[in-house]
Amino acid sequence: MAPERIISLAIENLEKNTPLRAKWLNHKRLNGLSGTVAISYKDDKLELPVEIMQDFRASHLLQLEKLVKEHKGNIMLVAYRIEPNAKKELRDLDIPYLESNGNLFIHHKKLLFWLEHSKPLKQEKSLGNRAFTKTGLRAIFHFLRFEEDINLPYRTIAEITGTALGNVPNILKGLKEQGFLLPLNKKVYKLQNKKELLNRWIIGYQQDLKPSLHIGTFRFLKPEDFTNWKQLPLKSGHSWWGGEAGADLYTNYLQPEILTIYTLESRSELIKNYRLIPDSKGNVHAYEKFWTKDEEYKNIVSPLLVYVDLMSTGDRRCLETAEKIYHEFLQDKL
Question: Could you tell me which InterPro entries the record lists for this protein (predicted)?
């Protein structure tokens, strides 16, 4: 969605549901920001430089914090949608935000405006594009790790990505339409705008694919097994550490609070093999393995998936570790 549309919706819904009045000052752009919003309430007036985003997630927090520091704290986020856990972080950091549905947070001197009265607006989806369906997301995950495979025959791509043969041309067509496939000649392509593609993939993975992979949430029968999780004998070729556990194994920097397992084992096998007890508030989360081609990391999922898991938490220590993983394992590939 165009930035102008996002700010227009936000101001329209803000004024519709509150006594606040707002005006978009497109001509007042400070150091590459989108513009300035002027907000007034009775005799109080406030102008704030604005950064406009489509979707703001917890994974964007560190980036926004750097921007806020550059502008000495004088900046407001305006977004079509803001994740609930990201909103909490923004409030804790005292960063003003305005959502397209009119939800607002501003704490300026003696003024405090905090409105949380509306559900997020529905996402606008591109009709007919198959690249970011659940099936497409599986294929994109493969291409982000093994880019050269994008030029293999359709049948081979279907086999190594676990997708139906008929879906492959639609997925590739969708990537072309979105500007993520660059033709080098009539038969050879390469990925482009890979960082943007990864960000799109993270959204789709968190919203659509990952929830469908969830096997269950558990705790250990013996609490000390959580502390000694590295000694847990994961079944080779069947289960892999992801999330915070995978990050600790890659960096030796993060002490996990949640253990994430991606697996081919069934729920009953997990309970039996690792002495787990189902618990909706447990600290062991299990998901089905959704890829077919592994990298050479033994019992850990790829650095890419660990990075995505961490970036989706909104937890500061996880975000800092994700940056380490990005610079060490992913930067040269993306």
Answer: AbiEi_2
